[in-house]
């Protein structure tokens, strides 16, 4: 199981990113633990300059803007 964190204070892009990650994981049959991190002090622990940020198993894989669907699919591909 992958632990996915969505970093953001609650903007529309953060929610869209969360929904996209959840949708792609479900479509690919990948079990994830999805966590929304919305406290600034918790977000600042990661090296990102813009939100939303996406962290998978404590590795930042994206920051700034909503990732495209193909990118998210790549995060959950069998070899990823």
UniProtKB/TrEMBL annotation:
Disulfide bonds join 11-14. The active site is at 11 (nucleophile), 14 (nucleophile). It comes from the Bacteria. InterPro entries: Thioredoxin-like_fold, Thioredoxin-like_sf, THIRX-like_proc. Keywords: Disulfide bond, Redox-active center. Residues 3-76 form the Thioredoxin-like fold domain. SUPFAM superfamilies: Thioredoxin-like. PANTHER family: THIOREDOXIN (PTHR36450). This is Thioredoxin family protein. It comes from Thermochromatium tepidum ATCC 43061.
């Amino acid at each position: 199981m992958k632990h996915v964190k969505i970093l953001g204070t609650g903007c529309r892009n953060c929610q869209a990113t969360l929904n996209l990650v959840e949708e792609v994981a479900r479509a690919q049959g990948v079990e994830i633990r999805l966590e929304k991190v919305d406290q600034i002090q918790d977000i600042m622990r990661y090296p990102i300059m813009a939100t939303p940020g996406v962290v998978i198993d404590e590795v930042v894989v994206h920051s700034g803007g909503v990732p495209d669907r193909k990118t998210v699919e790549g995060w959950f591909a069998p070899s990823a």
